[in-house]
Amino acid sequence: MIPTPPTTPVRSADQSATRSETIDAVVIGRNEGARLLACLNSLKGRVRRIVYVDSGSKDRSVISAREAGAIVVPLDMTKPFTAARARNAGIFALAEDAPDFVQLIDGDCTLDADWLPAAKDAFKRTPGAVVICGRRRERHPEASIYNTLTDHEWNTPVGKTRACGGDALFRYVPLLNVGGFRDDLIAGEEPELCLRLQRTGGEIWRIDAEMTLHDAALTRFGQWWRRMVRSGHAFAEGAALHGAAAERHWVKETNRAIIWGAVIPMVVVIAALLHPIGAMMALIYPLQVVRLAQRAQFSRLGWLVGLFTVVGRFAEARGALGYYFDRLKGRKRGLIEYK
User: Fold this and answer.
1) Class of domain 13-219
2) How far is CA 104 from CA 129, 155, 173, 284, in A?
């Protein structure tokens, strides 16, 4: 559901000409501990105001945020939690004294010291932009192969793009005008928002600049698997919302997950039952790993990406099919957490 945002104050041309452009920040988190303090400290002195939206923390997060000078907005936890709903709470809290830009950042991230000047300069160079994002990196990519894969995932191409992640600098008024995030999405809320922003004529750009350090803390296969299940769910729900439109939002990704993670395995099983040689059809999976690794010239990272991309299709298929099953049953799935 897209919420109804508060009314944005309208400034006169004279006011706009004489005032300097302002940047506020919205941080979301729950029980982030020292990571939240690091996040807030990375924003101090770089933005006008920090709004911290707390999602029922049991630690000292709220106290620490207030001590750091942040405006604390407790999220109503009587309603199902989504990161989208938390971000909206922070975005809407800024409306009475609206900034020109709002930096969204998760509480397990820190902002690079040079990011905001680089992003503002990018806005000047691309007047059609409503979102500027940069390089999000994992803080400890060497800690596990899952962190390594996540760091690789963040490294998307520079230039005009279709979507950003949870960390990005937004023009505030266009963000408010589309109603912020769709707050009932448990995953994939950023690409869905970017789709609606682009439908209003806005552009999404990724620049070649360091933006944030993120702490995924993925150390176990089960965590990574659940994260991929969540991706599959996001693909299917995004396609259900916007797949019929011209953008074909996440239709390709959903079909790919279901074909590789569900259809081909069923075909292999049926073929093997009909004749033992039919089991050889399963060789399509190692061949796909080799094909994907070849893109990175068979480097260690290339082999990891190839292997886990193929394995991940099974998790994505589970997430996508789970979404469709819940939809048939008239149920709304809760959060798929992996930390």
Assistant:
1) alpha beta
2) 16, 19, 14, 41
